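Batch job 17 of 40 flagged for manual review because the log was empty.
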Amino acid sequence: MDLNSDLGEGFGIWRLGDDEALLDVVTSANVACGFHAGDPSTMRRVCLRAAGAGVAVGAQVSYRDLAGFGRRFIDADPAELADEVLYQIGALDACAKAAGTSVEYVKPHGALYNATVHHDRQARAVVEGVKAFGDLPVLGLPGSRLLHHAERAGLRPVREAFADRAYTPEATLVPRTEPNAVLTGADAVVAQVLRLAERGELVAVDGSVVAAEVDSICLHGDTPGAVEHARRVRAALEDAGVTVARFVVR
């Protein structure tokens, strides 16, 4: 099972999360590309640490929304959105290559991630932006329009679940505006991950069991207790005999 985390989400002198500690745990790093967070120095620093740790570097692309941390929907023109996705991947890839590695996959962030579950035009635009750069795998919610269009374009669709997010009975994420959308207790986080890895399912907020076959699990870097959660999740998976490894192999 691949473990990914959103990293490099500071800006300038402001830091969010403990990138260094998480890079010792995860196998894939979703690096912010400057549109919702991140800046050139942060991007290059995270890429350098990821390369040294053998962690795959992924472009965490977003709407152009620094003020809202990329968590506000923007009715973006599809052609412009595709170009902005391409721009972000290219910027991160320059930093990655300077660190001796390269961008190996793409994952949308925040509101763009959620929009591409059902918004067909934006999902297609994200895929077009990725395809313009190259044949990179795309992370997204299982059953999303994003993964549908990625597969149709000849890109590898990578099914993802979240360790610390609550789910609806339809297997979509509970909006952050609703109560208990984020799991903050380490025991609950570990239990959700083990169920995903061992049974291919999760428990929705209404108590129903939802099928969820996934290739990668996201550990948010900005959740309270993120580092402890990540360490406990990895230890629990390894204790259960689950191999923790990156989904992209050079």
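Reviewer: the log was empty due to a logging misconfiguration, but the result itself is present. Helices lie at 19-23, 40-53, 78-98, 110-118, 120-133, 145-152, 186-199, 226-239. Unflagging and moving on to job 18.
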